[in-house]
Amino acid sequence: MALAVGIRGLTRSLLRPWVRVPGPARGRTEPAAGGGDGVRCFGSPRVLVEPDPAAGFAVMKMRNPPVNSLSLEFLTELLISLEKLESDKAFHAIILTSDCPGIFSAGLDLMEMCGRDPTHYAEYWKAVQELWLRFYLSHLVVISAINGVNAAGGCLLALSCDYRVLADNPKYAMGLNETLLGIIAPFWFKDTLVNTVGHRTAERALQLGLLFPPAEALQVGMVDKVVPEDQVLSAARSELAQWLAIPGHARQLTKSLMRKPTADRLLKERDADIQNFVRFISRDAIQKALRVYLEKLKQKKT
Ligand SMILES: CCCC/C=C\CC(=O)SCCNC(=O)CCNC(=O)[C@H](O)C(C)(C)COP(=O)(O)OP(=O)(O)OC[C@H]1O[C@@H](n2cnc3c(N)ncnc32)[C@H](O)[C@@H]1OP(=O)(O)O
Q1: Domain 42-301: top CATH class
Q2: What pTM did the predictor assign?
Q3: Of 38, 95, 97, 265, which has the highest C-beta tally within 10 A?
Q4: Per-residue pLDDT tens for 43-53?
Q5: CA-CA distance, 143 to 160, in Å (whole number)?
Q6: What CA–CA distance (Å, rounded) separates 219 from 205?
């Protein structure tokens, strides 16, 4: 099986980088995230970036409606946006949020894991790994402004940030709910959760597939702050000030010191992890479980 799917090659083949933002924001000069004037938003079809270079950060808005499920194209666009900001010395931080009302992310795109062939599963999983590694180890400060429900792979993305602000709405539960789908969070999802909430809470949360409403998410340490819904972005911006006041090299090296051992575990076994995923997801019983789950999501509407 061809496992060496290069994400950089993939991004080049899939996307024209930095296409103008489609829809209402196309070609428009919007107020920058931090309030500066005249800075152009940029991005790709599924990721809108509102830069505020004067303040040193950008707001990255996920907009893959209806539920910001992490499809291969969407993962690729998120990676391109991150790379672009990381390679520009004007930016020291990102605020990651959602442009889909009430939804931060529904997690990995089930359509990418259902009824496809092993080569596709391998390519998809490599992109999921890459997204986690790049966000988890980013030299930028990454703060998530979680403005909606946030399941499984979406929760992993938020857990990879340096700080999490969650909107105080009881509907906005978040967690790694994989077991509810009959699947298993991989070891690096587990490690990221353990590093955030501790072993006992993670063990219970992972086995039961718990999605924590805001008050509980705060209590177990899954998020750092819960604020009224209309203050999520401003709270993230205020928090950023403290992080940006620290000498950058000292903060970055400390982040790496804390996170590298966890990332190295995956880096050492990356291909084996892909093969495990492909074997697991290709099993008839797992495919059936995912189809049943998808069907339940659809039936919920009727
Ligand atoms: C070894 C494997 C390891 C894998 C590791 C991680 C796995 C994951 O991340 S799996 C994904 C887990 N996610 C979930 O369990 C969330 C599922 N979704 C929901 O609970 C709801 O959709 C949500 C609460 C997010 C939003 O609810 P609504 O606003 O009521 O929207 P709908 O439920 O009607 O959804 C709209 C539309 O989107 C489709 N959908 C939802 N989630 C996903 C998804 N993760 N992937 C693909 N598609 C998704 C849903 O079926 C609806 O489709 P249509 O009926 O065609 O409109």
Answers
A1: alpha beta
A2: 0.91
A3: 95
A4: 899 999 999 99
A5: 9
A6: 13
